[in-house]
């Protein structure tokens, strides 16, 4: 299958985002992976300081314990590149982000199934209407069956992102046990884009690729390498053979 290698810009120097993006493309990247996280440190703060009568539980809930970037950063980066911006939304209310990300110039909009159980149809519909490619992601604890309806719908997602670490931070250890999900998806949907994210590097790519993943996200192993182009080429060879 065709490989899509997507460096995670979370590991880049955010103060030089445009030049880091150009460098990755020069090194052979296909996509740029943008991690959007809504941060739950504030939730704990509010939970203990504001009486619940002033603030609904939903307002206080966030998806991951880290806060990264939003649509304005995508919009700024878009002015410097035509590359495919693969946006991974680790947020509790993905629907609220569809329009801003569409306007900002995002290419792919991948939301989490855990955050969209009641409204994924509406999200997919709006993502497509905004000119983006819809995708769904699942956390390590979520069963793969939960995404089947989104792949089999008449307006399906076009990519499934299997998290191979707990979402929130770069630089964590790859979870090989997630490969069962990748194998199951690949067997059931031979031409689906299956993306893996978290802990991918030269020592874990073989397992991911042979399990059936073709879209590879990697932050620390690419940005931490002396020669990022070599790491990208190892990934591509593992996927494409
Ligand atoms: C984690 C993010 C990943 C992360 C990957 O929540 O979704 O994209 O940046 O980083 P590495 O490759 O360092 O595990
Ligand atoms: Zn990601």
Automatic annotation (TrEMBL):
<keyword id="KW-0464">Manganese</keyword>
<feature type="binding site">
    <location>
        <begin position="219"/>
        <end position="220"/>
    </location>
    <ligand>
        <name>substrate</name>
    </ligand>
</feature>
<dbReference type="InterPro" id="IPR026019">
    <property type="entry name" value="Ribul_P_3_epim"/>
</dbReference>
<keyword id="KW-0413">Isomerase</keyword>
<keyword id="KW-0479">Metal-binding</keyword>
<keyword id="KW-0862">Zinc</keyword>
<feature type="active site" description="Proton acceptor">
    <location>
        <position position="35"/>
    </location>
</feature>
<dbReference type="GO" id="GO:0009052">
    <property type="term" value="P:pentose-phosphate shunt, non-oxidative branch"/>
</dbReference>
<comment type="similarity">
    <text>Belongs to the ribulose-phosphate 3-epimerase family.</text>
</comment>
<dbReference type="GO" id="GO:0046872">
    <property type="term" value="F:metal ion binding"/>
</dbReference>
<feature type="binding site">
    <location>
        <begin position="168"/>
        <end position="171"/>
    </location>
    <ligand>
        <name>substrate</name>
    </ligand>
</feature>
<feature type="binding site">
    <location>
        <position position="197"/>
    </location>
    <ligand>
        <name>a divalent metal cation</name>
    </ligand>
</feature>
<dbReference type="InterPro" id="IPR000056">
    <property type="entry name" value="Ribul_P_3_epim-like"/>
</dbReference>
<keyword id="KW-0170">Cobalt</keyword>
<dbReference type="GO" id="GO:0004750">
    <property type="term" value="F:D-ribulose-phosphate 3-epimerase activity"/>
</dbReference>
<keyword id="KW-0119">Carbohydrate metabolism</keyword>
<dbReference type="Pfam" id="PF00834">
    <property type="entry name" value="Ribul_P_3_epim"/>
</dbReference>
<dbReference type="InterPro" id="IPR013785">
    <property type="entry name" value="Aldolase_TIM"/>
</dbReference>
<feature type="binding site">
    <location>
        <position position="199"/>
    </location>
    <ligand>
        <name>substrate</name>
    </ligand>
</feature>
<feature type="binding site">
    <location>
        <position position="33"/>
    </location>
    <ligand>
        <name>a divalent metal cation</name>
    </ligand>
</feature>
<feature type="binding site">
    <location>
        <position position="35"/>
    </location>
    <ligand>
        <name>a divalent metal cation</name>
    </ligand>
</feature>
<protein>
    <recommendedName>
        <fullName>Ribulose-phosphate 3-epimerase</fullName>
        <ecNumber>5.1.3.1</ecNumber>
    </recommendedName>
</protein>
<dbReference type="GO" id="GO:0005829">
    <property type="term" value="C:cytosol"/>
</dbReference>
<feature type="binding site">
    <location>
        <position position="88"/>
    </location>
    <ligand>
        <name>a divalent metal cation</name>
    </ligand>
</feature>
<feature type="binding site">
    <location>
        <position position="8"/>
    </location>
    <ligand>
        <name>substrate</name>
    </ligand>
</feature>
<feature type="active site" description="Proton donor">
    <location>
        <position position="197"/>
    </location>
</feature>
<dbReference type="InterPro" id="IPR011060">
    <property type="entry name" value="RibuloseP-bd_barrel"/>
</dbReference>
<feature type="binding site">
    <location>
        <position position="88"/>
    </location>
    <ligand>
        <name>substrate</name>
    </ligand>
</feature>
<dbReference type="GO" id="GO:0005975">
    <property type="term" value="P:carbohydrate metabolic process"/>
</dbReference>
């Amino acid at each position: 299958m065709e490989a899509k290698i997507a460096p995670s810009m979370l590991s880049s120097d955010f103060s030089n985002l445009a030049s880091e993006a150009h460098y990755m493309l020069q090194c052979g990247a296909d996509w740029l992976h943008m991690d959007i996280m809504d941060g739950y440190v504030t939730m704990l703060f509010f939970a203990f300081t504001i009486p619940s009568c002033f603030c609904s539980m939903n307002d206080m809930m966030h998806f991951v314990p880290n806060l990264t970037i939003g649509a304005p950063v995508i919009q700024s980066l878009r002015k410097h590149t035509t590359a495919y911006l693969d946006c991974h939304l680790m947020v509790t209310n993905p629907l609220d982000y569809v329009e801003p990300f569409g306007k900002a110039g995002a290419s792919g909009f991948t939301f989490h199934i855990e955050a969209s159980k009641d409204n994924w149809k509406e999200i997919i519909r709006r993502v497509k209407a905004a000119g983006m490619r819809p995708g769904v992601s699942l956390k390590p604890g979520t069963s793969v069956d939960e995404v089947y309806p989104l792949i089999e719908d008449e307006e399906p997602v076009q990519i499934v992102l299997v998290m191979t670490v707990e979402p929130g931070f770069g630089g964590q250890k790859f979870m090989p046990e997630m490969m069962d999900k990748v194998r199951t998806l690949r067997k059931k949907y031979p031409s689906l884009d299956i993306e893996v994210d978290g802990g991918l590097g030269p020592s874990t790519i073989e397992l991911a690729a042979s399990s059936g993943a073709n879209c590879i996200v990697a932050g620390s192993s690419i940005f931490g390498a002396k020669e990022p182009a070599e790491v990208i080429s190892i990934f591509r060879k593992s996927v494409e053979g």
